[in-house]
């Protein structure tokens, strides 16, 4: 795919239920930057265009936390059902027809860097695999690159986590391996203790 162009789909619609009442993890700060802005900026810095951020819970607050970043905000009206697939469907429908595919990121994966995202994107220059997934000592997780040909399958899929779609393609999938510590995300108060530098936005 020598002329490949990839959009980003940043999933940021969840209600942060495991963080406890009244606490939105996407507004927590890591090194002084809200998590949702950090993950979106990583996609922007990696050179993905457009960067589509799918919001849901507390959408107005989360949108404000994005500040002046150049991104396309989409709203998942079904965010409360808790299914990641609904947010992914919303994001994929906003990917331009001119895009070769999309790279999916999660807004709470605080250790994903622009360099990691670029590596997933740039693998298209020498590998036409329909899916390129990140792997953290055996754990499959974003960032994941999907060729447009996989979109119909993703839109038909429902549930939480798209690892089943990746696994379904077996040997056709390529993996980029990262250290286990890069997998860190923020779901519960205990995760905060394991991620020095994260503070609340209050």
Question: Could you describe the 3D structure shown?
Answer:
The chain has 202 residues and is of the alpha/beta class. It has one domain (6-199): Spore Coat Polysaccharide Biosynthesis Protein SpsA, Chain A (Alpha-Beta Complex). The protein has helices at residues 35-45, 59-65, 84-93, 114-122, 151-156, 163-168, 189-193; strands spanning 6-12, 29-30, 33-34, 51-55, 72-75, 101-106, 131-136, 139-147, 173-178, 198-199. Strands 5-4-1-6-8-7-9 form a 7-stranded mixed sheet, with helices on both faces. The chain is globular, with a radius of gyration of 16 Å. The model has no long low-confidence stretch (mean pLDDT 89).
Overall pLDDT:
89
What's the name of the CATH homologous superfamily? Spore Coat Polysaccharide Biosynthesis Protein SpsA, Chain A
Beta-strand segment tally: 10
Taken as a percent bin, the fraction of beta residues is 15-25%
CATH architecture classification: Alpha-Beta Complex
Characterize the biggest β-sheet.
7 strands, mixed
Using only CA atoms, what is the Rg? 16 Å
């Amino acid at each position: 795919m020598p002329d490949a162009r990839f959009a980003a789909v940043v999933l940021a619609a969840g209600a942060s239920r495991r963080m406890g009442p009244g606490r939105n993890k996407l507004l927590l700060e890591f090194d002084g930057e809200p998590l949702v802005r950090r993950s979106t900026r990583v996609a922007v810095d990696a050179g993905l265009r457009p960067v589509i951020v799918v919001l849901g819970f507390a959408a107005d607050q989360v949108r404000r936390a994005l500040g002046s970043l150049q991104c396309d905000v989409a709203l998942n009206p079904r965010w409360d059902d808790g299914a990641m697939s609904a947010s992914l469907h919303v994001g994929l429908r906003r990917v331009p027809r001119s895009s070769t595919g999309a790279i999916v990121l999660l807004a709470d994966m605080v250790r994903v860097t622009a360099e990691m995202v670029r590596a997933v994107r740039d693998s298209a220059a020498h590998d036409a695999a329909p899916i390129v997934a990140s792997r953290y000592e055996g754990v499959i997780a974003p960032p994941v690159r999907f060729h447009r040909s996989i979109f119909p399958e993703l839109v038909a899929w429902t549930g939480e986590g798209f690892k089943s779609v990746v696994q379904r393609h077996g040997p056709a999938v390529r993996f980029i391996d990262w250290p286990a510590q890069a997998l860190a995300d923020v779901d519960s108060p205990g995760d905060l203790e394991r991620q020095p530098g994260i503070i609340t936005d209050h």
